[in-house]
Amino acid sequence: MNSIERVSPISEIPYVLIRAKKKTISIHVKPGQSVTVRAPNNASTRYIDACVDERAPWISEQQKRLSQKLMLPIISDKDKPLIKKEILSKAQYYLRDYTGKLPQKIYVRYGSSRWGSCSGLGNISLNGYLYFLPDSLFEYVLWHEVTHLYHLNHSPLFWRALSEKVPHPKSFRKILATYSIPENNRTDSIEA
User: Fold this and answer.
1) Are 75 and 81 in contact (CB under 8 A)?
2) Distance separating the N- and C-terminal Cα atoms of the chain
3) What pLDDT score was predicted for residue 189?
4) DSSP state of 79
5) Residue 183's pLDDT band (cuts 50, 70, 90)
6) N or C: less crowded end of the chain, CB within 10 Å?
7) In terms of pTM, does the model score above 0.85?
8) Which residues of 18-28 are buried (b: 16+ CB within 10 A; e: fewer)?
9) What percent of the chain has pLDDT above 90?
10) pLDDT (tens digit, 9 = 90+) per residue, 43-60?
11) Rounded to 5 degrees, what are φ and ψ at 121?
């Protein structure tokens, strides 16, 4: 894979072009407003520039949205054991009096976009970046995933069950969307 820096001729958007063995063009917008375009090896630069120009409104919208997010600090490898311990301790604290279904295991991961997940096997993963968020958001993510132990979807039943633990859960979801995981872990993208 080789990459070159380019600027689209009409919208004048600077981007990094990466050619790869693929069939479609994808445009990725990262925090810090950098744009990466991945394109098939055989796509002409004129066609690629046209795709970037065509997607200019979407690119600008993503850059604006990402610039308004609160950027969390990068977690170093040496800090991960402490963060894992803190997150697991906090999860145990919130689950201490809970008498419903409990997760088989709780993992701490450092993903790029999900704050948490629940597997069909009953395991929960929590993102290490939750360490930096207010307790109310941590609690929302934890109960969101615990609720998935009963409802593996986002049906009205799921939201009703979650609201028994977290009043107005969708408002927490909106607040959570104002935080951004550091650039080395997160991108927003679109397939052209």
Assistant:
1) no
2) 19
3) 38
4) G
5) low
6) N
7) no
8) bbeeeeebbbb
9) 58
10) 999 999 999 999 999 998
11) -85, 0
Judged against a pLDDT cut of 80, whether residue 112 lies above it is answered with: no
Retrieve residue 9's tokens: 């001729």
Query: What's at 71, amino acid-wise?
Result: M
For residue range 55-92, what is the model confidence (pLDDT) as tens digits? 999 998 888 877 777 778 888 899 999 999 999 999 99
Percent helix / strand / coil, the chain, rounded to 5: 40, 20, 40
For tokens 């850059």, name the residue.
63
Contact indicator for 16, 61 with CB cutoff of 8 Å: no
* Coil, strand or helix at 4: strand
* Nearest-angstrom CA–CA distance, 119 and 123: 5
Of residues 32, 50, 36, the one with CA closest to residue 5: 36
Q: What's the Rg (C-alpha) of the chain?
A: 20
CATH class of 77-180: alpha beta
Domain ranges of the chain: 3-68, 77-180
- Is there a contact between 126 and 145 (Cβ–Cβ < 8 Å)? yes
